[in-house]
Amino acid sequence: MITLRKAQDRGQADLGWLKSQHTFSFSSYYDPEHMGISSLRVINDDRVAPGAGFDTHGHKDMEIISYVISGTIAHKDSFGNIKTLPAGEFQLMSAGKGIYHSEFNASNTEPLHFLQIWIRPDTLGIDAGYQQKAFEQSSPLTAVVTPNGENGTLKVQQDATLYRLMLSEGEKVTMARTAEQASRHLYVQLIEGTLDINDTTLTAGDGAHLTQLASVDFTAASGQVTALVFDLSANA
């Protein structure tokens, strides 16, 4: 089963300096039909004006992933991390017992476009932590976040794996699923291009919730395709 979440149906926020689209309920956007999937609680598609950003604020007991589509994030947190996160890189901040941070568009002339993702941890009150990495795309589906940090991936405190999908126009990759794997949730967030998932077509900004599929075919119908694919526990 594939349930499509069209880009234009997401929650909308416009603060002038920030234009954001919310896949799931967030802040002033509330939709009881879209509260998250498994441990995946937030996907915010954020566009930040030059020089603007989020002042210092706190988080607790949340795994927060940022993926920059274009531009650069300037990050600073209460553990002394002062980082820049350029386009194509992933950041994972484990809020754990508590962390304060700020995020700004590092440029005074160019806009910033990034996805902010929240995953509920399976254990509360862990030590806060910070991870950041650029990944080579060694295959169409490249794991970037895993529960155990295997093969140099970022480690998340949850039974969840995040892949980056990249396909050239006309290219196809199949994700075969065992019966146990098919009982898990897959969520796909398309960033660019046109993507066919089995018989369902996604355009940029669309999402899709996949359940009970023994095989998933990803085909780049047009353009260069970039997407995030979440593999999530059936029980979280």
From TrEMBL:
<dbReference type="Pfam" id="PF17954">
    <property type="entry name" value="Pirin_C_2"/>
</dbReference>
<protein>
    <submittedName>
        <fullName>Pirin family protein</fullName>
    </submittedName>
</protein>
<dbReference type="InterPro" id="IPR011051">
    <property type="entry name" value="RmlC_Cupin_sf"/>
</dbReference>
<dbReference type="InterPro" id="IPR041602">
    <property type="entry name" value="Quercetinase_C"/>
</dbReference>
<comment type="similarity">
    <text>Belongs to the pirin family.</text>
</comment>
<dbReference type="Pfam" id="PF02678">
    <property type="entry name" value="Pirin"/>
</dbReference>
<dbReference type="InterPro" id="IPR014710">
    <property type="entry name" value="RmlC-like_jellyroll"/>
</dbReference>
<feature type="domain" description="Quercetin 2,3-dioxygenase C-terminal cupin">
    <location>
        <begin position="144"/>
        <end position="232"/>
    </location>
</feature>
<dbReference type="InterPro" id="IPR003829">
    <property type="entry name" value="Pirin_N_dom"/>
</dbReference>
<feature type="domain" description="Pirin N-terminal">
    <location>
        <begin position="8"/>
        <end position="119"/>
    </location>
</feature>
<dbReference type="InterPro" id="IPR012093">
    <property type="entry name" value="Pirin"/>
</dbReference>
